[in-house]
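User: My collaborator sent over this chain with a note saying "see what the structure looks like." That's all I know about it. Can you take a look?
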Amino acid sequence: MAICEGTIATEQEIREVKRRHSPHLLSQPGVCGVGIEKDGAAQYVLAVHLDSDDPEVRKRLPEEIEGHRVRYIQSGPFRKLPANDQA
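Assistant: Without extra context I'll predict from the sequence alone. Here is the result:
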């Protein structure tokens, strides 16, 4: 569903965009995560986490997906933390 310019996306709309596009985004070199966040104007955006600040990685990725702004965050690679045995 494309959103007209100036329309605020609902959380559900962004969830659907994430569901449709996460597999492709995660297959791109340098992309380590895809999520949903609110921007400074409290609007929902697709948040794509990058494992480096390599400009070559960033320029291969879109500014918008289905008319929704994408926010890129350099977060480094994600790693699983060990289980905490404390009760």
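A starting point for your reply to your collaborator: Residues 11-26 form the longest helix (16 residues).
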